[in-house]
Amino acid sequence: MRAIAYEKFGSADVLQPVDLPKPHIGPDTVLVKVKAAAVNPVDYKIREGYLQGLIDAQFPVVPGWDVAGVVEQPGLDTPEFQAGDEILAYARADVVSGGTLAEYVAVPVRTAAHKPAELSFEEAAALPLAGLTALQSVRRAGVDAGSTVLVHAAAGGVGSFAVQLARHAGARVIGTGSPDNHDFLRSLGAEPIDYHGDLVASARELAPDGFDVILDYVGGTAIDTVPQLLKQGGVVASITDARARDEFGGQYVWVRPDAVDLAELAELAARGVVKIEISEVFDLDHAADAHRAVESGHTRGKVVVTA
Questions:
Q1: Which end of the chain has less neighbouring CB within 10 Å, N or C?
Q2: Which fold has domain 2-127+276-306?
Q3: Which band of pLDDT confidence, cut at 50, 70 and 90, is reported for residue 29?
Q4: CA angle 120-121-124, nearest 5°?
Q5: Judging by beta carbons within 10 Å of its beta carbon (0-12, 13-18, 19+), is residue 102 exposed, middle or buried?
Q6: What is the pTM of this model?
Q7: What whole-number distance in Å separates Cα of residue 61 and Cα of residue 84?
Q8: Which residues are listed as membrane-spanning (predicted)?
Q9: Which numeric CATH code is attached to 131-252?
C-alpha cells in the first residue's frame, strides 16, 4: 500500500512516500480503507522528536491518528462494524508507527464510530482528535449554562469545536484570535478579542467579574494571565501546560480515544450543532505540505489529507 512515512525525526522534509504491506489486524480491530485523514499539531511535534519519552516511536513511522474511511475487513470479534461500513476514528495506539497517512490503517473498535451520511469523509476525518479534545476539556472544566468561558486559540482546530460545545451547553463564550478570524468566531457564537496587546484588559472589558472557566489551547503566555482573569472557584483547563493543574488547581487534559464520545460528536455535527471548518485539503503525495501548513500555526480549523 502507499503511505507517507519517516525513518528519523526532523522537519517535514523527512516525510517520504513509501510502499508498505497492509496492516495486520487483531481480533478487536478493523482494516479500514482510508478516504481522508487529518493532520494535528501533535503530529509534527512527534515527528520532530519533542514527545520522545512520552510516546515511543517505532520507525518507519506513518503519522496520523485521525481517519475516516470504509471498513474493508472486520476482525474476529468486531460486531460493531461490518465490511462496507463508513467510519471515523481517533485511531491512537500506545506507540507511534502505523498511522493514518496511508491507503489502509488498522483501527481498534474502541476508537471508532459510524460516520453519519450527512458528513463527507473530509469532514469526518477532521473531527476526532480536535473534537474529542474539545468535548473532554469542556466537560472536565464543568462548563454549563450560566458559565462565562474564555477560550484561547478559539479559531483553531480544538478551539473552534470548544466554542461551539460550550455555547451548546448554554455558556457565554469569549474567544481569543487574530482580527482576521473575528467574524469567524462570531459565526460560531463567540465574542472575539485580539490576543495581541493587553489581553487581560481586553478580556476584563467584556467580563469585568472574570471567568468561570478558562480553556487554554495555545500555551505560552496565555496561562500566565489566569490569576488576573479566573474567578475565585473557577476552573482552568489546558492541553499544553501542566501549570493549569499544578499551580492553579485545574485540569491538564490529554485527549483519550472514546467511541461513545466520538459518536456523540458525529451526531452533533450531522445535526449542524457543531460545524467543521476545513482550511485546506491535500492529497497523500503532498502530505508534507499539510504538515507544514499546520506547523505554521496560522490555519483556521483543520487540515485534511485525502488518500
A1: N
A2: Quinone Oxidoreductase; Chain A, domain 1 (3.90.180)
A3: very high
A4: 85
A5: buried
A6: 0.96
A7: 27
A8: none
A9: 3.40.50.720
